[in-house]
Write a structure and sequence with these properties.
three-stranded antiparallel sheet, 1 helix, about 25% strand
Length: about 130
Amino acid sequence: MRGRVKFAYNVCAMALAEVEADRPVPSGKHQVRMEFAYDGGGLAKGGTVSLFYDGEKVGEGRVERTIPFIFSADETVKVGCDSGTPVAPDYEQRDGVFNGDIHWVQITTGSNEADRLIEPEERVRIAMARQ
């Protein structure tokens, strides 16, 4: 797992879905992306997880079911570290802090395909122009 992007989805400790890239992230600055294609048709359905480095697919797998409403009051979304219960058994909290640089994090819903192509600097410029 070292150096590879890995997505883990823990369904209330009842089911764990993991998808890992087929190779490590190359050194240097890169866009790392995860897309979730929900099966739809109601609550708690599954979907397909796809992992990308600079737009190239490097991993794909399934999440068979999702949590329908809310996770819990003590778990939140975190990037680069985990201060709560580890999401997966192989994630060691004490060693699980990312020590690189994260320049931009974007969480979106919907299917605006072109939106992921906008560079962070351009996004900031657009936001400032709207002021």
